[in-house]
Amino acid sequence: MTSRLPKLFAVMGLSVVMGLSLASEADARRGGSFGSRGARTYQAPPPTKTAPNEAAPVQRSMTERQPGQTAAAPARPNAATPANAARPGFLGNPLVRGLMLGGLIGLLLGHGFGAGLAGMLGGLLQVAAIALAAMLAFRFFASRRKPAQAAANTASFRSPFEVQQPAQAAPQTYAPVDLGQDFTVTNGDREAFERLLREIQDAFGREDYGAIRERTTPEIMGYLAEELGQNATAGRRNEVRDVKMLEGDVAEAWREGPLEYATAALRYSSIDVMVDRQTGAVVEGDAERPTETTELWTFVRQPGEGWKLSAIQDA
Predict the structure, then answer these.
(1) What is d(CA 103, CA 207) in angstroms, rounded to the nearest whole number?
(2) d(CA 122, CA 129)
(3) CA angle 50-245-106, nearest 5°?
(4) CA proximity to 228, closest of 5, 1, 7, 17
(5) CA separation for the pair 159, 315 (Å, rounded)
(6) SS3 content of the chain, % helix, strand, coil (to 5)
(7) Average pLDDT, integer, range 189-211
(8) Are the beta carbons of 249 and 265 closer than 8 angstroms?
(9) CA triplet 256, 262, 266: central angle to 5 degrees?
(10) Is the pLDDT of residue 183 over 80?
(11) Which positions ≥6 away from 191 have C-beta within 8 Å?
(12) Can you tell me the distance from the alpha carbon of 258 to that of 180, in angstroms, rounded to the nearest whole number?
């Protein structure tokens, strides 16, 4: 009986989180552009030989847009997602959902935080710690938006008894956004980018949450874990193997304080299929024919540490 408790708790926790996740608006696939490029998140990388066309703008990011930065055209509001719809709460945030789904599913699949009752309890503590950290970050970003929203609401209110004066447009000026200083990457950096491409794709195909977490930022980990969790609820697994680098070049590299960023255009081939979790049968894709993909991957590193994936953009 005791040996069944860890998995029982994991299944119960997983069911709760999945229910909360599916109740909110979901983005079911990895395709798209997401993550952070620091101060250049909302600026298109320069074209390269590998990716000559302008990259798709970042669609999902925890990085706030700075005043004066050009925004991508917002999606049109509709009946399902009105323009004044409330922002998702803590558990509706994709990063939080991804981290919690990733941790709980990792426990069940053996790629998470350990085995046995002790490992299970330690794993649940880690899931709670990750969720708490994400919650604090989410509330921090939300609190930064509140003063601006309150000021806007106050400015737009007018008494019905006062005489309305014609509004006069005042020119707005913004301080230039500091986009960092460029630097030149080395051959060793390029080799690291190619190695991370293979290792992250391989870890994603194995649903190895630990390996993904070691090679990505917490934000990217959250997005990838969210997708893995959604695949699991659908009874599928995204199998990625035989990743081969075909062509690559660096679009730009820059420093922001102690951090260094580099965006590389990568063209690679791989066997990328969706299989049934129970039978292993291929339900999407071709298991015998590799496909080619071109993407822009942005990496970041801190002093004395290795590169980590921080953003992916469609090319």
Answers:
(1) 11
(2) 10
(3) 115
(4) 17
(5) 51
(6) 40, 20, 40
(7) 97
(8) yes
(9) 160
(10) yes
(11) none
(12) 11
Asked whether the beta carbons of 142 and 149 are under 8 A apart, the reply is: no
Domain ranges in the chain?
Answer: 181-314
User: Cα(229)–Cα(213) distance, rounded to whole angstroms?
Assistant: 15
223-235: average pLDDT: 96
pLDDT band at 132 (very low <50, low <70, confident <90, very high): low
- Alpha helices (runs of H) in the chain, residue ranges in sequence order: 5-23, 94-109, 116-156, 187-206, 209-215, 218-233
| pLDDT value for 56 | 86
Q: Is the pLDDT of residue 112 over 50?
A: no
Among 42-56, 59-73, 110-124, 150-164, the range with the most confident prediction by mean pLDDT is 42-56
Instruction: Give the residue, 22 or 213, on which the prediction is more confident.
Output: 213
Mean pLDDT of 258-271: 98
Q: Which residues of 192-219 are buried (b: 16+ CB within 10 A; e: fewer)?
A: bbeebbebbbbbbbbbbbebbbebbbbb
CATH 3.10.450.240 fits 181-314, yes or no: yes
- Return mean pLDDT, the chain: 74
Distances (CA, A) of 135 to 6, 32, 100, 227, 264: 25, 25, 11, 20, 31
Tokens of 5: 């408790």
Nearest Cα residue to 314 out of 266, 273, 276, 277: 266
Q: For residue 161, give the 3-state DSSP assignment.
A: coil
Entry field: residues in the chain: 315
Q: How far apart are CA 58 and CA 313, in angstroms?
A: 7
Q: What is the DSSP letter of 112?
A: S
Token pair belonging to 267:
């063209």
Calpha distance 95→93 (Å, rounded): 6
Is the pLDDT score of 162 beyond 60? no
The amino acid that residue 277 corresponds to is R
> What is the C-alpha radius of gyration for the chain, rounded to an integer number of angstroms?
22
